[in-house]
Amino acid sequence: MRALPGLLLLAAVCALATIATGSNSRSNARLLDPLEPLLDYRPPAASVVYDRHGRVIARYFVQRRQLVRMDEIPEHVIAAFVASEDARFFLHAGLDFPAMLRAAWINVRGGRIRHGGSTITQQVVKNVLLSPERTWTRKLREMLLALQVEQRLSKEEILLVYLNHIYLGNGSYGIADAARSYFGKEVAELDLSEAAMLAGLPQRPSAYSPSHHPAAAEARRRYVLEQMLAGDFASPVEYRVALDNPPQIREPSLQTHSLEYAGHFSEEVRRELVYWFGSSHLYGGGLQIETSLDLDLQREAQLALRRGLEALDRRQGWRGSLRRVAPELLDDALVEVGWENRWAQSARGRGRIAEELRLGLVLASSTDSRGWEVASVGLAPDAVAKVEVEPAAWGLAPASPGSRTRVLQVGDVARFRVDAASEGLSASLYQEPLVEGSLLSMDVASGEVLAMVGGYDFERSEFNRAVQARRQPGSAFKPFVYAAAVESGYTQASFVLDSPNLFWDSKGESVWRPRNYGRRFLGWLTLRRALAQSVNNATIQLARRVGVEQVVGMARRLGIESELHSDLSLALGSSEISLLELTRAYAAFPAGGRRVRARFIRRVLDRDGAVLLEDLSLGERGERFEAGEWAGSEAEPLSEAPAVSRAHARIVTDLLQGAVYEPGATGAKAQQLGARVAGKTGTTNGNRDAWFVGFSPEVATGVWVGFDRPRSLGRRETGSRAALPIWVDYMAEALAASAPRDFDAPEDISFARVDSRTGRLARAGGSRSSWQAFIAGTEPRWTPAPRRSKAATRRELLLDDF
Fold this sequence. Notes:
Elements: H1 4-22, H2 25-31, H3 36-39, E1 47-50, E2 56-60, E3 64-65, H4 75-85, H5 97-110, H6 120-128, H7 136-152, H8 155-165, E4 172-173, H9 175-183, H10 192-199, H11 214-230, H12 236-243, H13 259-277, H14 279-284, E5 288-291, H15 295-315, E6 323-324, H16 330-348, E7 357-367, E8 373-380, E9 383-389, E10 412-419, E11 426-430, E12 436-443, E13 449-453, H17 478-487, E14 495-498, E15 503-504, E16 511-512, E17 523-526, H18 527-532, H19 536-546, H20 548-558, H21 579-587, E18 599-605, E19 611-617, H22 646-661, E20 678-683, E21 689-695, E22 699-706, H23 719-734, E23 749-755, E24 769-775, H24 790-799
Helix pairs in contact: 1-5, 1-7, 4-10, 4-11, 6-7, 6-8, 10-11, 11-12, 15-23, 17-19, 17-20, 17-22
């Protein structure tokens, strides 16, 4: 009696097969209604983000799937799956009756459904159209629908759905993502051995996973190869070669770990596209997102910011080890440290920045003749590294033999950066910085964002400090004062008085007394020298003459959209703005005075290649589209009208070159990049924020350094010391591929050699002179500068309108 359900099922299937193949067209139409998801197969597919060179930097998905075409799948990959899952696939019409008889007999003997004898067509029906439940009624529907599918779809179409839809473990849906996940390859690159391993997964992806159960995966791979040989899907030679060459399970390539480098950028892309399309379409719509990012420069930006923040943190001193182990527990602690390192490496994966960081246990420590500490640090019971520590680099005096003020003591557990490239095992002491920072880099000509780093580590904090944070820019705001002055008729050789300033509030109670860095007053200065040396009170005097309204207007035209204070404190950067605003405003100067948009998404395409959106910019959103209105649409273009004239922009560019190359310039460290850069430092009261924003003719870049909760960065941690080295480190890479050239100059600009102190024409060879840009006809004359007596200067200071 137990055999009756299986025999009845087989008889019913045979009858249904006869009915299905001989039914009239009207019945066929009625039966085919449930097949629409297959006839128009559009499964949930991951949306993929690409950099400007077509490299993958992020994927957004619910089911991690990338669709492939049939012509992208090698024949041996198809053969492996057919041999493993349905050897008679190309012969049957949807149901394999011999296989069903074998499965029915096994099920009868077992008293329940253990094997279904399912063809690939049936698996497609089950996975796409039906539920995975194991019941007689569901199985009957599956077989009936399989017959219908074979009438409407070709074998190649059925295979394509199957290979794109199946789950293959490791979170991978379809062979394209599985090939990347297990082997770091595209489907077209798979060899026969790798194809056999993937083909062994569909029945039990978790049990046969090569990542978690390598022995079971290897046995299954051998079974698939045997099936291929038995069914003439592979020749004896191909079989032997594949059998003798087991696949190497590889971690995904570096570009799939780009979250470590491009996390803040890809998150900004995600937020933007959720705004336009909604979460469901982004995570399942298979969008192709082409961005402006250069992954190579992004990596350099991330590393430059990390190096700079770590250097600043070291200058503020060693904060101590993570924990200390008693001497009698060192052996057990070393085993524990080894296990922690293995777990961290496995969890984070290979190819990431932080892979080189390890926990270490100090086993021995001494001091050499330089006063440096030399320690033996255990990373695992069988791995001991040599570590040299320069105490001065960690804010301590050089150690002496027997000193108890060493950075490292025996038993200390700390983090170390391992240098795998050196001979022997060596490492350096590491301390994760508490300070944060951000970097934004743009192409001057197009405005496209080349690199954007929103913090030290995206995994530590997703907050994007390049776009979302607003901080006081300090002296980095001063160029807008000087730009307003140039537009008002001032030249680089015009004079401004550096004198004390006192300000009362409207009630006559509180007093603001701005100070210069170093607390000195320099008297009369040319505009070029005043900006180069970032003289606060001279800038306030200039803003007073030009008018705060004109300064605000200039900043607005250049792209500063945050609220600006309408008082003279604005000249010293008292209003909070973002790094994005500041960088794109600076970019307008080398761009010939044109307001620059920070473009970061070039195009968004649907899964069929149709353009949905084009040319999206950071911080600028148009009206969101309703569902179904995306195709053929694009964001509303924004105006790029000139913010200032080309001539005035060139003069401000020259002023900012002076802030790098003039004697005493605060941006002097940028000189090592060559004569084609310009920029300005910024430091706020109490050294709470440090900035450097600058540009070459090709690239504009801004850097900010500070704590999320504002506090002092430390003594002498100015924009020149904390932010500028990061900028130089990154720009050296950004400019490496371009030939040096000077900034463009319009026809109405002329150059003259001017003495930086007198503001008059100078003869060649003068140490205080430099070539400076002027609108033709406004250059200084040869007449000597007027002499001012000390008494006259004192009289001017006393008469100054406070």
